[in-house]
Amino acid sequence: MPQRLVRAIYASRTAPGFGLSMIEGILSSARRHNSVADVTGLLTFSSEYFLQCLEGGRAAVNEIYARICRDDRHQDPQLLLYEECAERSFSQWSMGYVGETALASETIRRFSAGSRFQPTHLGGAAALALLEALAGSVKTS
Fold it and tell me: Radius of gyration (Cα) for the chain, nearest Å?
């Protein structure tokens, strides 16, 4: 049976002690696993939060999200959006990355009630729109 294309966007808080120096390990692992699973996406990280979009076949996206929920580097993961989609928004990256320096308060304010990056306070449509707006700031592919 063919897999349907889905998009999942989640936000989580970083675990105590998690820092910028650890993000490269997450990106390397995500890119390796996502390439094999034909999953694409975008990760945004601040010192306090992760916001990530995963796009691909339903089974692969579900498995990756389940693994993230068990990962002790993430606290209180919240699924903000889960939907079938006609096309990928981040097809060019197995896992693109936008760092904290690209999180300008005026960009955040466009999609949320305040200017502080708190993705757990976003709705699914706003989270997707924010990630799409940040995609132009991707540092690595």
Answer: 14
